[in-house]
Amino acid sequence: MKYLFFALVTVLATNAFSQTSFTATNEKLANGMTVYSVVSAGNVVGQFCPIHTLKFVTRQMDPGMFSKDLAFLSWSAGASVITPGSMTTVVDSQYLPQGRSLSNGIPCGDGIVYNYGILVFDKGVISFTHKSEVGNLDSLYNKVESDKGTLMYLPSVYRNGAFLNSEKTLDKVLVRRETPGGEQIGIVFFDRLTTYNEARQIILGLDRPGQSKTTHIYMLDGGPRWGQACKHVNGKDVLIGTRNKNVVTNYLLWF
Fold first, then answer.
1. Cα separation of 164 and 201, whole Å?
2. How many CB atoms lie within 10 A of CB 60?
3. Are 108 and 102 in contact (CB under 8 A)?
4. Of 49, 130, 126, 33, whose CA–CA distance to 83 is shortest?
5. Which of 2, 131, 177, 238 has the greatest CB tally within 10 Å of its CB?
6. 212: buried, middle or exposed (CB in 10 Å: 19+, 13-18, 0-12)?
């Protein structure tokens, strides 16, 4: 499936949530796409990085990768953005990604099915679902495993009109939107810690009745221990935030 992206322009939203727009910056990702400032109620609150494919890596399968600097990983992998993905848990004193997950068809994570959003990358297609939406999770899991695809769990901030009313904070989210130019997927990095409710209101402020619609907002792991990310812009790798190398369990490499 070919992902289509439209040229984003600065416009004001007029809906019940907030006035939000994308404004093009002078930053270009390694995938050739433009980074956009997220402007809400007249203030820049973060950046949006469009992506269209991914790779999920874990310490369980590639421990050597987790001793490297993220800028080195970005350069060596050719990734546009690297972020932590699934939440991290402790099992028998070992840090693991949460979820009954798959990376390239290989089981990983703590093996528990959470009432979270589910991100699937199968046969080149990124799809978003949720534990409560999957009729037979075993069937989905077995298919993705057979296809050597990726399946992972992310807390859902918003999906198809349903949302979690929460004042918990986050610093980055994965967003899926439907636009006149086709499906749009990307990562929003907020400039400060933002509550679930604020994040939802800001991103839904991009929606234009009859034109574009946000379908999913999923949380990516964050904070000073797990949350460091890296974006490759204008030929350089830029680190965002900090991390403790000893506790990070997984990365999403976005292309």
1. 12
2. 18
3. yes
4. 49
5. 177
6. middle
